[in-house]
Amino acid sequence: MGEFVGLVAVVLLFGGIPAALVIIYYFARNAKHTERMALIEKGADPSVYMKEDPPYYSALMWGLFIFGIGLGALLGYIFSVFTPMEQEVMMPTLSVIFGGLGLVSFYFYRKKAGTTAA
């Protein structure tokens, strides 16, 4: 029975997750295509509704995200040294929290800059 559970786990991990990602990508592309076709049928120019972000936005988003993860890992290590909390708990927890805060700060930057956050 143990080998069967392991086999199912491996099949789901290496087959199920990539299949789910492909399905999500397909439906997202299909929805975007359907929206463009509806705009064309109504006589609207679909390029008006699809603004491109400035090229530095992607770098800024990833920079803030990775900075937040690094800051969270550093604070998790410091907290684990100076408090009785375990390092295995503090570092991942604070890394996720500060990574999320980095993304939230990027969202508010975009909102203040006047672009929509998609």
Helix and strand sequence: HHH
- Number of structural units classed as domains: 2
What Rg is obtained from the alpha carbons, in whole angstroms? 21 Å
The helical percent reads over 70%
What structural class results from the helix and strand content? mainly alpha
DSSP summary: helix tally:
3
Residue-averaged pLDDT:
84
Percentage of residues in DSSP E strands: under 5%
Would you identify the regions where 5 or more consecutive residues have pLDDT less than 50? none
Number of strands: 0
Strand and helix map with partners:
Elements: H1 2-41, H2 56-82, H3 87-113
Helix pairs in contact: 2-3
Explain what this protein looks like in three dimensions.
- The structure is a single chain.
- The protein is built from three helices and no strands.
- By secondary structure, the chain is an all-alpha fold.
- The protein folds into two domains: 2-46; 52-113.
- Helix 2 (56-82) packs antiparallel against helix 3 (87-113).
- The mean pLDDT is 84.
Brief sketch in words of this structure:
With 118 residues, the chain is mainly α. The chain is 80% helix and 0% strand. It is flat, with a radius of gyration of 21 Å.
Q: Which descriptors would you attach to this protein?
A:
single chain, 118 residues, 80% helix
